[in-house]
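writing this on my phone so excuse typos. first protein, seq and then structure
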Amino acid sequence: MAITWILVANASLAKLYANLGPNKGLELVKELIHPESRQKNGELVSDRAGAMAGNGGGGSMQPHTLPKEHEAKVFAQEIAQTLYQGRTTNAFKRAILVAPPAFMGLLNAVIDGPTAQLVTDRFEKDYTKTPENELGKHLGGSIFL
C-alpha cells in the first residue's frame, strides 16, 4: 500500500503524519515549530522604520512585507523543503495538505512542481489542535483511517 503523508499546518506549527493504508490510522512523522510566527510584528524588528526625505517632507519607510508575514513565508519554505525531501526519498506517494487559507496560499507558492503533483487533496482549515484520532472525521473520505 502506498504511503500518504498528511500535513496539518498553520503559520507556526506543522504536524506531518503518515497513513500506511486502510484502517491503519496516522503515525506522526515529524513536528515543526516556528515560534517567530507567533510573535508580534514589533517583537520581530530590532529598530523602528527608517526615515526618508522626500519632496513633501519626511515620512517613514514601511517594509513591503510585515515581519510576521515574512516569518510565515520562511516557515512555508521549511515545510516545502521537508515535503521535497520526502518525495525525493520516496517516503510517500501521495500528500494531503491541511492549512488555513492564507497559509495554504503560501505553501502552494513554494512547493515545487513534482511535489505539488503528489498533492491529491487540500483542506483550508486549521486542524493543528485537533487530536490525531479525530482528524479522519474532519478529512472525510480522503484518507482511509
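second protein below, same order as before
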Amino acid sequence: MPSNDVRILLQAAVPTAAVGALAAVVSAVVAGGEGAIGALVATLVVILFMGIGLYVLQRTAKSLPHLFQAMGLMLYTAQILLLFIFVAAFKNTTLFNPKAFAITLVATTLAWIGAQARAHMKAKILYVEPDSSKGDKPEKSGHSS
C-alpha cells in the first residue's frame, strides 16, 4: 500500500478503535464482561470489514479509475449488508451481549465513515498525476514568424 493509503487507513482505524474502547468500557459497566466482549468483537469486525473495503477501493481506484464511484457505492452497500448479517447471526448468542455488540457496531461504523471522510478531505491527493518521466518538448502548433 502506498504511504497515502496507509495514512488514510490509520486516520480511520485509530478513531474507530478509540470509539470501540470507549464502548467496551461503557458496555462493561452496563452489561458486565459479556458487554465488553461484545463491544470488542464489534470493534474488530468493523475495523476488519472497513479496512478490507478501503484496501479494495484503493486498488480499484488505481487499476480501474472509471469504476471508482460505482465500486465505492457497491462496496459500502455490501459492507452495511454484511454488518446487518453479523447482527442477525449473533442476536441470540450467549458468547457476548448482543445489544452491546449491535450498538458498538453502529457507533464504530459511524466513527469509521466520519474519520475516513475527514482523512480524504485533509489528504493532498493529486487529481492528475504529472508524467515527469517524459522529456519530450511540446511541438509548436501556432504560426512562428
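The CA atoms of residues 28 and 46 lie 19 Å apart. thats all i got for now
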